[in-house]
Amino acid sequence: MAKAFTLVELLVVIAIIAILAGLLFPVLWAARASARRSVCISNLRQLGIACGLYAQDYGEFPLRLSACNASYVRNGAVFVCPSDAARGHHAPTPRLEGDGYLATGVSYDYVPRWTRAQELGWWDPAPHFGPGKWDDLTPLADCHWHWARTYHSDWWDNASNARGWVLILTAGASVRKVRVESPVAEFTPDSYR
After folding, report:
1. Range of 158's domain?
2. Residues 6 or more apart from 107 whose CB is under 8 A from it?
3. Is residue 92 part of a domain?
4. What are the CA-CA distances from residue 109 to residues 14, 23, 139, 151, 154 (Å)?
5. What's the mean pLDDT in 33-44?
6. Among 37, 65, 63, which residue's Cα sits nearest to residue 50?
7. What does the pLDDT look like over 82-126, one tens digit per residue?
């Protein structure tokens, strides 16, 4: 007589597999998000070093982030955050270059070009941004893609109804983070975590 699984035994096995999957998928998703964040931090550091080298060579920061391409950054993928679903292909704005200058696109905001940062005295208006209000701790670029799904060209302040962290590249090429819901006008380097 051939032995076979009963319906109850099959349902128990399926239930156990479903429970294990339910436990593992969030862990795997968190690990994947952490890996994307690590790549993004590496990209921002490389861009910070490139902007610093540019500033040494020319005595000022570049007019746009992508100006560091070719001479200081060999791989265009450095300008793209892995969490950006559009892979850097956005309509260009003064703050987010998107497809404006590089075929690979740009995911990162360039803070010296942000009108709000100039209004608050973080940076001087273009073409000569100066050293930045807090020297090496002044925000130079940022990445919103770890909490935002789309880019809004009219962003003026942080989103008070949102929760999460914004990765900040400082003028000294270090990467920090700040709470996304913190008002921009209240920012100081003490806000970094």
Report:
1. 9-191
2. 79, 80, 81, 84, 87, 88, 90, 96, 143, 145
3. yes
4. 47, 36, 10, 10, 13
5. 93
6. 65
7. 999 999 999 998 889 999 999 999 999 999 999 899 999 999 999
Q: How far apart are CA 192 and CA 175, in angstroms?
A: 9
Q: Which residue has tokens 């090496």?
A: 136
Query: Looking at the domain assignment, is residue 108 inside a domain?
Result: yes
Q: Give pLDDT tens digits for 17-31.
A: 998 888 888 888 888
Rg (CA), the chain: 22
Q: Is residue 3 included in any domain, yes or no?
A: no
| HSE-CB for 70 with a 13 A CA cutoff | 4
Q: Distance (Å, rounded) from C-alpha 102 to C-alpha 106?
A: 7
Tokens of 98: 């998107």
How many structural domains are present in the chain? 1
- Range list of H helices, 59-143: 115-119
